[in-house]
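Milestone M4 deliverable, item 7.
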Amino acid sequence: MKYGEHLKANIAPEYGPDVYLQYETLDQTISQLAKVKPSSAIENNRVVSMTAPPQTNAQGLDTSHVDVTEEHFLRLLESEMIKVETFTLEKVTELRNKISETELKINDAKRFQPAQVLVAADEIANDFLRLEMYVNINFMGFHKILKKHDKNLPNLACKAFYVNRLHAQAWVRGDYSDIVVRLSNIYATCREDHVAQEADQATQSFSRSTSKYWVKTEDVSRVKYAVLRHLPVFLQKTSTGESDSQFTNSVYVDNDQLELYHGRLEKLPGAIALRLRWYGPGDPDVVFVERKTHNDSWTGEVSVKERFMIKESEVHQVLTNTYPIAQKKKEMLAKGKSQKEADEWETLVREITQVCVSKQLVPTMRTQCMRTAFQIPFDATVRVSLDTNLCMISERGYDLQDMKVWHRDPEWVLEKNEIHRFPHAVLEIKLELKGDTMVPPKWVTDLQNSGLLYECHKYSKYVHGCAVLLPEDVQAVPYWVDDVSLRQSIIDSEGQRILADESVGVGAGANEVYSHLLPFGSTVNDRSLIAVGRTAADRASASGLVGERAPLLHDNQNGAKFYDDEDDFLGDEEEEDGVCSSWCFPFCSSHNETLLAPTGVQKIEPKVFFANERTFLHWLHHAVVLSTIAAGVLAFSDESGNTWGEWYALCLLPISLAFCIYALNTFLWRSERIKNRIPTRWDDVFGPMVLGWCLCVVLAVNFLTKLVEIAKQDAPGIL
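Output delivered:
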């Protein structure tokens, strides 16, 4: 679809076409200018004559009487920019006024009716999302028309100038996150959120399950709204409260061999990551020393995050193992901390300071982002964080001064190979559910299956930064670097060494087998323009075909199915008309829908693959036993001339062959479902039953035949 058609199809009825970019008018102006073929200006001319006619065009023809000039196009472009900016700012003002009116209703106890307030809040949120779509459509239009201008009029190129000017305008660079914060407060009031008791900040240990997703820039606001309807924006104590995001820096330490990097990449049991984190702009005052320890969940253990808080001046002591642990412990006990808490804190600090020295850890990589956190304060049941403006910065190449300097000076200008800007936002959903039978809330499952989230299993900002910015030091890279949406940003950071050849698409490893791991595909299977996030709605989304995006904010209108905690994954599936029986040929049945489920919906443990192989071998074993029996019966029947025995053996042989064919077919079918984590039945109800009945019939016939033979021998006159 051309952009002009796309623009017409996405005009909001509430706004009308007049407030949108007049793309066709600008396009026609470019076409008229292209016919004139104007020449470029002579840059060395510093003076002009007010009585001399203008210079000729690129063909040497007089253009003094031409109606359409480059100035005409630029004036029209300027007026369109002003129009879009004015309309956007007016709508933002209207939204803020509506929020103020809603807040007044909340403050007035007599007028406060939660149901009405929720309706008003939903209306404001939908108006904001509609406005953002308006901004994005026009923003894309300006880029498109400027690109077209420079393509048709290379002598008068102006895209670079106007794109920079476009990014500097208020309607593009303005921060309207205060709307998100105020809406969050309104929803929290209507939900009557209760603040849990504040936990101790000195030492914290989190045992949790975490899933990570990529979010397109244009979907960030929709995802924020979907979350804040259920969780409030959680502002840190150092935050001003004027924005929903907080500037977050994390400096990761590692040694020259990148031992911690490779441990985290390979997910070795007990692999750790150490980082120094602080919040807010400027130099840090308070720093959190954090340790993340990986454990495989299928072993019964869980990954753990532990941290303690220090002053910035004490970072040097932690990294050099000179931190006064005994003195700090006494101070904790004097402040009323229990002996158990103090002992746990001491153990954690000693382990971290000792590993820093024993492994010779130094600052290696910094991640930087604007973090929006959603959480009921001090309630860790469901926590959601959204990182935007994410970038990775190399912390190598400067004098550490014996660990007294542990992060780059903010005044230094970074080279291309020292910074990497990640093109997507990163969403983290952290669950801490009590009990083995508890499931995530329905809204969390709906969000995971909304089509807005692109799951990237085990994504790590630290691992990604090291792979891109330290390509000569890494021995292996994560699978997601092959994703086509990351390729240009990696090249911009001069990390193309880790990329596979463009004609191949993916490097050796998991991506060769599991193509669905890459959210947007590879260079040879580019789905960046048509891919949707993982949903239960569209069988084509897994293979990169166009599918409807599941609606997030309204009722299901596009035929998308949301898997939630009430869905019955073990229910019987209806067979499609005109297809063969599913148990006989699973690959051509309704059982083989190409669905992809988030790991939060369908967990896969390594033993599942081995269980599938073990089941396959058991079926083959029984098939071999049957064929052996049939061969033996057939051999003895030939010698004795028993015709019935031959027929009996010939009946057993095809049954044993059917066992083999069924076992192979089911093994491949089940392997595909396990690989794609399809959240439906992985067992076959009818196949074993049919084969079993066939075997029972043959054995029963043989049994009855033998009874008849015995009866004939005992009473030859009866029959």
